[in-house]
Amino acid sequence: MTATPTSMAPQGRPPTAQVVVVLSLLLGLQPVTTDLYLPSLPGLARELGAPMAGAQLTLSALILAFGLGQLVVGPMSDRFGRRPLLLGGLSVYVMASMASLWASSIETLIAARVLQGIGLAASVVCGRAMVRDLYEPLEGTHIMSRGQSGLGLFALASPLVGGWLAVGAGWRASLATTGMIAAVALALVLTRLPETIPQKHKDALKPARMWEHWVKIAQHRTFRAWALLLLFTYGGLYTFLAGSAFVVIDVLGVSRQHYGWLLASSSASYLAGTFACRRALARWGIARSVTLAGFFTAAGGLSMMAVTLFGTHNLWSIGLSQALFAFGHGVHQPCGQAGVVAPFPAQAGAASALSGFVLAAGAFVIGLWLGQTMNGAIWPLTMTEGILAMATAVTAWTLVRRHGNSSS
Predict the structure, then answer these.
(1) pLDDT class for 4, splitting at 50, 70, 90?
(2) CA 237, 33, 260 angle in degrees (round to 5)?
(3) pLDDT confidence of 342, banded at 50, 70, 90?
(4) What is the CATH code of the structural domain delimited by 16-193+205-403?
């Protein structure tokens, strides 16, 4: 049964530079949402009288809502188009950001962060699907890499701005800033982004058809290879994001500003990885580029585990290990996000959503694990990230190498 077209995208696609700017902002909202307030996390816990596990739940609950939201947003974007879902999702995000300003308890703040996660799901899913709407897989990987470079700039700036806000204005100012950035994205989509979906699918929201699409997608070897790569590489990054503030600030006694610089150095390495990705794609193609990046990921993971095994608990050893991991992540992330949707031009939203849900569910489990095990210990952070880094490298060297091309 073929889908019935209800409308077509405008003739001709938007200029590439315009697509890259919009994509960078839509994807960049994710590190803004997570990284900007990380330097404020210990202070937030103290002000609201919440335990570390409660403070981490403001991040874990957001990630879970982000994952579950994608399962709904993806099919909805295939049914109604990318533009209306972006406008609605970004509006929800802005309102949730404003609600977080008046949060007087950790429970209220968690609820606001859940709504932010739902809005973020629309931003990321529709941004990734938009690339598949407009470009063939290889060209789309190049565009995704450029968008991920834009994301890297947001990731680089967010902890620095967050560290400054944490000291000068507090965690509420950090969350207000996320809302203002989302408002800019909303205005840009409203004024500059046309509908990109070439064909809307009237039956995309029928439960039987949704299940049929998800089963078909999940059974595809190329999708599984890229989805596992994304799960492990983002899991490693999320481990660092969720746990490093408590280790570096509370355990190692580093200032919030210096912690912001640690996050920024990781983002700078990630940004360098996205530039290296584009050069590698032109020379070696997508699967081999990821295979080679796996060696940087493995080096970062092994050195992160060595921090615990040899007792080198300091800012420099953790920072260098994270930089190696982040460089590899800069290749894995854009290739993986383009790879999961490449075989599914007619269900790009559903494929993006399913991958995003798997990724977010994994991150939520990691957050719960860290919340229960850290409590002043360093090893849960370093060993968890190290194991996930090695899983990323092995996936790159095996599954992606064998099945990474969309024709597999």
Answers:
(1) very low
(2) 65
(3) confident
(4) 1.20.1250.20
